[in-house]
Design a protein that fits this description.
The protein is an alpha/beta fold. The chain folds into 2 domains: 83 residues, DNA Methylphosphotriester Repair Domain (3-Layer(aba) Sandwich); 170 residues, Rossmann fold (3-Layer(aba) Sandwich). It contains 10 helices and 14 strands. The strands form 3 sheets. It has a 7-stranded mixed beta sheet with strand order 9-8-10-11-12-13-14, with helices on both faces. A 4-stranded mixed beta sheet has the order 6-4-5-7. Helix 7 packs across helix 8. The longest helix has 16 residues. The relative contact order is 0.12.
Length: 289
Amino acid sequence: MIPAQADGGEPVRTYTLCGADGQPYQSPTPGALGGHRRGRLYGRLDCPSALRAIARGHYVTQRVFFADEATAVAAGYRPCAVCLPADYARWKAEARKHHSMNPITEQDADSRSPLISPADLAAHADDLPLPRPHTGAELISLLGLLTGPRQRIETVAIGHSRDEDSRTAAQAFHDVWTARGGRVLTVVHWPETAASWLRAARRLTAETPDAWVIAASVPGFAQLARRLRTSTDFDPARTVAFASLNTSRLPTLAGPGTLSGLRGASADGGTWDVRGAWVTSYPPSEVNA
């Protein structure tokens, strides 16, 4: 809220809202809906899920407000599953239709499965990075994403591929997190190929953690991410990952917007994040500045 001056010199309250173009503007009336910028979701101002997150110190820096639902949708936000269940159900049904079209080759257009086609996986097989042993700087950076200023992360769910490097990274995080007094609600692992990925997706989201932590190879997690977004309340904006997922091939395979908001740590102690179809890396100097 920003005070302005009326013609008579009296202060006039204005409110910062998010417009249909995603840009902020000043309004004489407060927003009717709240939203989370990184998670790209909107809901009621009295949403119990949002209020709990705000009470724990989350959400506030990413909080946005909208004049109405049409503006929120135009800005690219989706409805909250908790406070707008009917709107969310309709959005999810539309999302399933969208993901049935493969974002790379648009093969299997009649299929309702979110899986990536074998042809697309094969096309990228040669340029996908393999998981490598994590570094100490990487683990410290990952912890920093969860324990920085204004962060009040207490509970996490850990997911990992079944290769040795991913398993070891997940275990290292588990040990450090619990040693700090944090809680791990569940640890879920998955193969690189699966019939539908639904079991792993449901196990990973069975409880509602403050954050998800991922140590995985790109092909398996890209497929799991599709299932997570179409069948669960998984939020990439509340997810951090090890360096093995720091590649632009991840959002390419997962699909446009599927992992927007995902953040991660680099082997050198820097960080990275996913915004739409792009992965941006930040060196340690920017992280520690």
